[in-house]
Design goal:
The complex is a heterodimer.
Chain A (H helix, E strand, L loop, with lengths): L1 H27 L1 E8 L3 H19 L3 E8 L1 H9 L6 E4 L2 H9 L12 H4 L2 E10 L19 E2 L7 H17 L4 H13 L8 H9 L6 E5 H11 L3 E4 L3 E5 L2 E4 L1 H7 L2 H12 L1 H9 L3 E2 L2 H7 L7 E3 L1 H5 L2 H9 L4 H7 L1
Parallel strand pairs in A: 1-2, 1-3, 5-6, 8-11
Antiparallel strand pairs in A: 3-9, 4-6, 4-7, 4-8, 4-10
Chain B lengths: L1 H5 L12 H28 L3 H9 L1 H34 L5 H8 L1 H4 L2 H12 L6 H6 L8 H26 L2 H9 L4 H30 L4 H5 L9 H10 L3 H32 L1
Helix pairs in contact in B: 2-14, 3-14, 4-9, 4-11, 7-9, 9-11, 10-11, 11-14, 13-14
Classes of the chains: A alpha/beta, B mainly alpha.
Chain lengths: 336, 280
Amino acid sequence: MKTHTHTPRRLAAALVIALFGLALSNAAAQTLLNVSYDPTREFYTDLNAAFAKHWKEKTGEQIEFSQSHGGSSKQARAVIDGLEADVVTLALAADVNAIAKAGLLPENWQSRLPSNSAPYQSTLAFLVRKGNPKNIKDWDDLIRPDVQVITPNPKTSGVARWNFLAAWGWAQNHFGGDEAKTQEFIKRLYANVPVLDTGARGSSTTFTERQIGDVLINWENELLLALKEQGDKYEIVTPSLSILAEPTVALVDKNVDKKKTREVAQAYLEYLYSDEGQQIAGKHFYRPSNPAILAKFQSQYPNLKLFTIDEVFGGWNPATKKFFEDGAIFDQIYLK
Amino acid sequence: METRKKTKRRPSRRILPGFGLTMGITVTYLTLLVLIPLSAVFIRSSGMGWDAFWTAITGRQVVASYKVTFGISFLAAATNAVFGFLVAWVLTRYRFPGRRILDALVDLPFALPTAVAGIALTALYARNGWLGQFFYSLGIETAYSQVGIYIALTFIGLPFVVRTLQPVMEDLDAEVEEAAASLGAGRAKVFTQIIVPALLPAMLTGFALAFARAIGEYGSVIFISGNIPLRTEITPLVIVKFLENYQYPQATAVAAVMLTASFALLFVINLLQRWAEKNS
């Protein structure tokens, strides 16, 4: 009987030892933490498996992955506050800039990898209800009084900033650079937004589940995925002009040096640019930055003219200052 | 007396033992959990200078959000004070089948993750929702409006009122009511002169708890409110917006305002409660 009363304690002790053992054996295999934004979950699950295989063949080392996904700037803040990411793969260069400002990686990070540290790209397009009942064709249809537009809040969502900039870029081009008219257009567009969700997934839910709005602006890769799954209910409308969205990746120097993972983390980021990495990006509806691979997938992307943030706005820092800071244009359009 | 003075242990001035230990633990616990995090808010915002602080807390969108948050929280808590009273009354005064289930239901808003509550309420009250379609046909926008915020805040506040009122109602002496009735008081008079004064302090407490909870609520509201600046943006969302833009000082400045306001409100309600206790 006596031994029986001791069993739970012994079990607990055994469990503790087992856990320790597990922790130790885990430490033997290197673990990489990739901190990313929301819609990349499936893409990186595939890519990580492919890279682990590649790395094992090349070096014989076992590599394990942890993935973390969430709103892009929330993720950046987590890294700044001490989440030990080896690499960050975020929606906006602005968020990586913020990490650089905190001293975790050098300010020139964006020039360390090819094509502005954006191994895959995307753009913004419209999702409308089947048959396009409101006959939406381009950006100027979004300001019609009978049209409701769904897009998240640029203050809290990465893709929403790309949405805003895409609309601004189109209007600026359309009005021949007239700033006042461009701002008026943006103001009317956001007056047509009945719900400003805090993130991209929230907006998708509002549009698809709540059946609110006539058009959803979102990542092209998310729309293509939605179409694959629910093609009988929606269709994609491609505007005449949109922005080339460049989600950026970077090594977090401070963390990789501390965890001694620089070599494998660097190889991981370079793998994103390899033919295999590019193929996987294309399979998940991102636009590969390698033109040869892009050409292979060309038929899946709608054909439209794209401009870059550097061309039109001079990069993220000036764009953030002009549009999204406290009291900047996005705040102003709601005040008047 | 002589011998007691000579013993090494200091004589305890309290009848119950263990005051030193329990008080020590209480203070440490409260300091770690409440005081340090809250003072961090003030310390972080104090580094920004008075002008910047003032600009951050008086922006038009921020001020509009105070109105939305405090105004609607007040309405929601007031609604709960009335209907929570009814619910507590039914649960304590009557015996009927299913009472226990009803009683357990009251706690649900406590237990449900607020995001789940927000999504469920939005699904119900949206234009294509079960309940929303009726409201919309009457011309009332329920989801994505201030009404939506009111619904969410009422939902999360209900248990606070019911759970504070219930024990007090149970202790309410029925004999006093009977005595009043036998002395010729009508039902209305018994209610207003006997029952309400006895329950008023608990009602105020419940109201204050529901109100304070509503002011800080984020998870359930952002799904149903629509988050349009100046109209349906709550103050906690304004704070999140600042954070998302790496404006920590501004975020903590607004948080400090909320903390101060909540504290002042709770303090006033506490005073009211004392006054009500004295008068009953």
